[in-house]
Amino acid sequence: MGDEKKTEKAGSQINFDDVLNFIEFIEECYGEQFIIKEDKNNTGEEKERRNDNKNKSAGIFEKIMDEVSKLPDPYHIIREEKQRMLKDIAERIKVCKKCELWKSRTNAVPGDGNPNAQIVFVGEAPGYEEDKRGKPFVGKSGKLLMKMIQDVLGLRREDVFITNIVRCRPPENRTPEKEEVSACLNYLFEELSVIRPRLVVALGAPAAKAILGKDEKISEMRGKFYTRPEFTVFVTFHPAFVVRNPSYTETLENDFKKIKEFFES
Ligand code: SF4
């Protein structure tokens, strides 16, 4: 360490010059000067490094914490910025004509929810209700999804982000064609790159295949976690399938219990 200048707080060592630089930065921001006291060899003897015009004196760390506490909360800055970016993606989706599905839509349906969500649910495509209201998962399958989110995960709709691989309703709710998925999928990856969730839950085979790039049956993928560089993917049934086949409700519930365990581990 040689003659490197150090100061100690709560057992950790911090480079004294770094502290000075930081204080100077704070001073520039707030137009005030502080007295900085240095204890070179931890002898308890402090040496004043600088005087200020207003003759103010304060412990370095208390002052830093005091000044930092006045700065805007970075969580809110990040959330607002993410919200702005998601809004930009949504605006582009609403006027998109990259595939033929725009011709029959009432509303395109962008993703919806918390920009800081730890978990993102991805379905297939909007249905009748979603097309009418321009919001994902607001029909019967949305009710079931929300029941699982609330009852099993203990979360609210505003805690998560909900979206689809395709944003315009296919006629008669048919499964989206490969070309339609290819044309639309980038919007999903844009949303995910803004939100940066820990877990992406693929609801049903089309979502799982599109996200994982696999061509496997839902029976082979369901209930499994897949680690990807940016996030983990979990595959379960699409709630619309469970609405039509209520005997699978318990399986869906058990999958949601696995999701809960993932966040508790
Ligand atoms: S489905 Fe997607 S790609 Fe096709 S028009 Fe709608 S938003 Fe655009």
Write a brief structural summary.
With 265 residues, the protein is an alpha/beta fold.
Describe the structure in your own words.
- The protein has 265 residues and is α/β, with parallel strands linked by helices.
- The chain has 2 domains: 11-68, no CATH class; 74-264, Uracil-DNA glycosylase-like domain (Uracil-DNA Glycosylase, subunit E), CATH 3.40.470.10.
- 43% of the residues lie in helices and 15% in strands.
- The chain is built from 10 helices and 10 strands.
- The strands form 3 sheets. The chain has a 6-stranded mixed sheet with strand order 5-7-6-8-10-9, with helices on both faces. Strands 1-2 form a two-stranded antiparallel ribbon. A two-stranded antiparallel sheet has the order 3-4.
- Strand 3 (36-38) and strand 4 (47-50) form a beta hairpin.
- The protein is elongated and about 75 Å long.
- The two termini are 40 Å apart.
- Residues 1-12 and 51-57 have low confidence and may be disordered.
- Residues 93, 96-99, 101-102, 108, 166-168, 180, 183-184 line the site of iron/sulfur cluster.
Content-based structural category: alpha/beta
Reported CATH architecture of the largest domain:
3-Layer(aba) Sandwich
Number of helices: 10
Strand content: 5-15%
Order of helices and strands: EEHEEHHEEHHEHEHHEEHH
What is CATH's topology name of the largest domain? Uracil-DNA Glycosylase, subunit E
Main-sheet strand order equals 5-7-6-8-10-9
Given as residue ranges, the uncertain stretches (5+ residues, pLDDT < 50) are: 1-12, 51-57
Total domains: 2
- Summed over residues and divided by their number, the pLDDT gives a mean of 86
Q: Which percent bin holds the helix content?
A: 40-55%
Assembly state: single chain
Give the overall silhouette.
Answer: elongated
CATH class of the largest domain: Alpha Beta
The fourth-level CATH homologous superfamily of the largest domain is: Uracil-DNA glycosylase-like domain
Strands, count = 10
